[in-house]
């Protein structure tokens, strides 16, 4: 899997951030999703610890996902990005929320039902910064 595929997997991991966002009105583009998660690319490809910029990007994405339309749009971007991801790349993407100290109870996969992200859940009180 190339760097683009890995970036898409990073984006897929971030879908878990959608469920904890507050409510408002708009839809977020895939460009915004990928831009926020671009700093996570090396982590997804090679493992280790995500850089602070990666966790900040995830935090920014969480803050931007204010409406059901936002959350579902981000979900669709991330779901598409997760297509074909396997092995360490998929595992690294899946552990991103934990590594950024975010308590998110969902795992992203090609079978994720984006319609379930229509309601917001309580936000994590954890600061999303890298943990060891």
In short:
The protein has 132 residues and is mainly α. It is 49% helix and 0% strand. The protein has six helices and no strands.
Mean pLDDT, nearest integer?
Answer: 75
Number of domains: 1
Structural class: mainly alpha
The CATH superfamily title: Plant lipid-transfer and hydrophobic proteins
How many helix segments?
Answer: 6
Would you identify the regions where 5 or more consecutive residues have pLDDT less than 50?
18-25, 121-132
Q: Characterize the largest beta sheet: strand count, sense, and whether it forms a barrel.
A: none
Which fold name is given in CATH as the topology?
A: Hydrophobic Seed Protein
Strands, count: 0
CATH architecture: Orthogonal Bundle
What gap, in angstroms, lies between the N and C termini?
27 Å
Percentage of residues in strands: under 5%
Mass-distribution shape: globular
Rg value: 13 Å
- The succession of helices and strands, N to C, reads HHHHHH
InterPro entries: Bifun_inhib/LTP/seed_sf, Bifunc_inhib/LTP/seed_store, Plant_nsLTP
Signal peptide: 1-26
Keywords: Lipid-binding, Signal, Transport
Family: Belongs to the plant LTP family.
């Amino acid at each position: 899997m190339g760097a683009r595929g890995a970036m898409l997997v990073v984006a897929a991991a971030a879908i878990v951030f959608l469920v904890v966002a507050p409510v408002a009105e708009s839809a977020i583009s895939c460009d915004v999703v990928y831009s926020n998660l671009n700093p996570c690319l090396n982590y997804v490809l090679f493992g280790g610890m995500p850089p602070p910029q990666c966790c900040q990007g995830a935090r920014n994405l969480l803050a931007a996902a204010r409406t059901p339309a936002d959350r579902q749009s981000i979900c669709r971007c991330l779901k598409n990005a997760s297509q074909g991801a396997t092995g360490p790349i998929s595992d690294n993407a899946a552990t991103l929320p934990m590594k950024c100290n975010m308590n998110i109870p969902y795992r992203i996969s090609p079978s994720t039902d984006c319609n379930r992200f229509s309601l917001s859940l309580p936000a994590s009180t954890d600061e999303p910064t890298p943990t060891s």
